[in-house]
Design brief:
Layout lengths: L3 E6 L3 H12 L5 E6 L2 H9 L6 H4 L14 E4 L8 H10 L8 E5 L4 H9 L4 E4 L4 H18 L12
Parallel strand pairs: 1-2, 1-3, 3-4, 4-5
Helix pairs in contact: 1-6, 2-4
Length: 160
C-alpha cells in the first residue's frame, strides 16, 4: 500500500507535537503534513503563495509532484481564518470540494458541531485528552480514512 497524505491544520504547538508523535507510531503508511493556520492550509491546497510549485513541478512521468491529501484534520480555532471558514472555502473550490475533512476540536459546543456539519465536514471529533486516547484515535482514523474509506475516482485530479 502506498503512503497517503494527511494534512493536519493545528495552531497549538503542543497538540501538533502530540499528533506528530502519535502518527509516528502508526503502522499504516502515511505522510503527515502539518500546517498551523487557515490561510496557510488554503494556500497549500489551492497552490497559492509559496506552495505554487506544488502544482507546476512534475515527477519523471510528467505527473504533478503534489497529490491532494486523503484526509484533512482541521482544528476550529485557528489564527488568520478559523476552521469553519477554511471548511467553507474548501467546499466552494473545485480542487478541494471532495476532500474528506475531519474537524478535531476541544470544543463541545453544540453550535460548533452544527456549524461544522452545515459547512460540509465529514466528521467531528473531540480532541482526546490523554496520549493513550490520542494513539487510539490516530489508529482508528488512519484505519478508516486511509484503508477502509473509498475516495471518489476523480479524487486528486487538479482540474480548474
Amino acid at each position: 500500500m502506498s503512503a497517503k497524505n494527511i494534512l493536519l491544520v493545528e495552531d497549538n504547538p503542543d497538540d501538533r507535537e502530540l499528533m506528530k508523535l502519535a502518527f509516528a507510531r502508526e503502522e499504516i503508511p502515511h505522510n503527515l503534513i502539518v500546517l498551523s493556520d487557515g490561510i496557510e492550509a488554503l494556500n497549500y491546497l489551492i497552490g497559492q503563495e509559496h506552495f505554487q510549485d506544488n502544482f507546476t513541478q512534475t515527477t519523471g512521468n510528467n505527473q504533478p509532484k503534489f497529490s491532494m491529501p486523503a484526509l484533512i484534520l482541521l482544528d476550529l480555532n485557528l489564527p488568520k481564518i478559523d476552521g469553519i471558514e477554511v471548511l467553507r472555502r474548501l467546499r466552494a473550490h473545485p480542487k478541494t470540494r471532495l476532500l474528506p475533512v475531519v474537524i478535531i476540536s476541544s470544543s463541545n459546543e453544540p453550535q460548533d458541531i452544527i456549524d461544522s456539519y452545515i459547512n460540509g465536514c465529514n466528521s467531528y471529533i473531540r480532541k482526546p485528552i490523554h496520549f493513550t486516547q490520542l494513539q487510539k484515535f490516530v489508529k482508528e482514523i488512519s484505519t478508516y480514512w486511509l484503508t477502509v474509506n473509498q475516495l471518489p475516482p476523480v479524487f486528486g485530479v487538479l482540474n480548474e
